[in-house]
Fold:
Amino acid sequence: MASRIAARRGAFVRNQAFWGVVAIVLLLAINVVKDPSYLSIGYSGGHLSGNLIDILRAAAPILMIAVGMCLVVATGGIADARGVAAALMLGASAAQIIFG
Structure:
């Protein structure tokens, strides 16, 4: 039983995504220690503001493309260059919607 748990833990720690998440959490923790208001969210002029909102706003277009491509791959994918064209059009449309 214990060896099986240790094997699962070892496989989890060897995963590249695990270390990416650890690095992001570590960077956020260092920034919060240096500046306690780093993750604060404010409301001014009818809009949310703050570092966390800026991070989410910058990541939104990439996240939309990633979710769209994940759905394409999960449903069988597009086998030729039309997939690339669809991804580019999705990215351009998302950028247009978000940034005006």
Summary: The radius of gyration is 19 Å. The chain has two domains: 1-39, 42-100. Helices lie at 2-14, 16-34, 51-74, 82-99.
